[in-house]
Task: inverse folding
């Protein structure tokens, strides 16, 4: 296969979690106690989720490197083994005895919306800018324009900016996502200028652009206008749940409808989406349609939507259903036979 990238270097959270299911859709109040069902769902952190899907599909063609930290505990050991089992290189995932492996608690409402709390005092806290630089140097990784850099939450903004800077200084393609509370720090730290692709959800888009309206088109336009003033070449993805997703590049906005699914949980769907987009871009799929009338091509965002569909149909934040065979069948159904999956 003629790949656009030959290696992916990522940092972000690595950890486990549990999920509680509420019996009603009313948002949890600040001083409220509520009974909820503890589910058997398996929850994982952002870097692991995204890299799992990419490696499951493309590890034969794309070297996938994780940079992170887990505790010297059973959870950390299990996570490293699980990552290695799909082809993720974990040589730069350290273990520490001073802090435990990251842990999160998800709270799911009957409408399948999910919020979560994640430990800030976990091993991921030890993933510093120095840790990033030292590991890249020790691994003797050579970053080029055929490298994709991925920087996602659950390690510090400072650390993610360090990896993005490392990538951008060597012409790598840089992908990032941020949380609402991190937006100001990320923007003030020059993160937007370092991004070739930013992946966020509609709530994060609203915060970034400081848009008061809840109307989705206004949020997308406001956010894309704001970001493009800082970085005219930035590409943007905004996921909006059942309303689908939007892409933006050089003034052009495209809507990608959500695929029909039987949702069990939305946890991890956004991570599955960006994983699908990264797979598509790596294989050479276009980010948006080429603009020719009546010409609809398979886009990287369509692959993202497909991954998200499979994610919401699973009770776990990583579904084992997404693999090379599934993608191959999907590409054949879409009439795309020349990528050699």
Result:
């Amino acid at each position: 296969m003629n790949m656009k990238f030959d290696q992916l270097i990522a940092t972000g959270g690595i950890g486990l979690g549990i999920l509680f299911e509420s019996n009603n859709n009313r948002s949890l109040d600040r001083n409220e106690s509520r009974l909820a069902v503890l589910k058997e769902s398996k929850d994982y952190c952002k870097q692991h989720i995204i890299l799992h899907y990419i490696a499951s599909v493309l590890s034969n063609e794309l070297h996938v490197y994780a940079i992170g930290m887990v505790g010297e505990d059973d959870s950390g050991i299990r996570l490293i083994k699980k990552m290695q089992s799909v082809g993720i290189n974990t040589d730069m995932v350290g273990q520490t005895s001073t802090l435990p492996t990251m842990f999160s608690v998800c709270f799911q409402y009957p409408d399948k919306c999910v919020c979560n709390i994640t430990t800030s005092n976990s091993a991921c806290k030890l993933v510093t800018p120095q840790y990033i630089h030292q590991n890249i140097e020790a691994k003797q990784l050579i970053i080029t324009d055929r490298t994709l850099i991925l920087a996602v939450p659950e390690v510090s903004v400072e650390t993610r900016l360090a990896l993005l800077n490392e990538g951008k200084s060597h012409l790598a393609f840089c992908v990032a996502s941020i949380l609402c509370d991190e937006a100001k720090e990320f923007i003030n730290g020059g993160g937007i200028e370092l991004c070739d692709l930013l992946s966020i959800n509609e709530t994060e888009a609203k915060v970034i652009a400081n848009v008061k309206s809840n109307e989705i088109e206004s949020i997308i336009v406001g956010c894309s206008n704001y970001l493009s003033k800082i970085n005219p070449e930035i590409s943007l993805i905004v996921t909006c749940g059942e309303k689908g997703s939007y892409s933006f590049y050089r003034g052009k906005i495209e809507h990608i409808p959500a695929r029909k699914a039987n949702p069990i949980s939305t946890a991890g769907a956004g991570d599955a989406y960006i994983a699908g987009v990264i797979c598509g871009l790596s294989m050479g799929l276009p980010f948006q349609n080429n603009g020719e009338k009546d010409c609809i091509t398979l886009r990287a965002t369509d692959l993202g939507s497909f991954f998200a569909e499979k994610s919401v149909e699973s009770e776990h934040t990583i579904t084992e259903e997404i693999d090379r065979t599934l993608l191959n069948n999907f590409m054949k159904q879409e009439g795309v036979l020349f990528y050699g999956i």
Notes: The domain at 7-25+37-333 is CATH 3.40.1190.20 (UDP-N-acetylmuramoyl-L-alanine:D-glutamate ligase). The two ends are 7 Å apart (CA to CA). The CA atoms of residues 30 and 245 lie 31 Å apart. The chain has a mean pLDDT of 92.
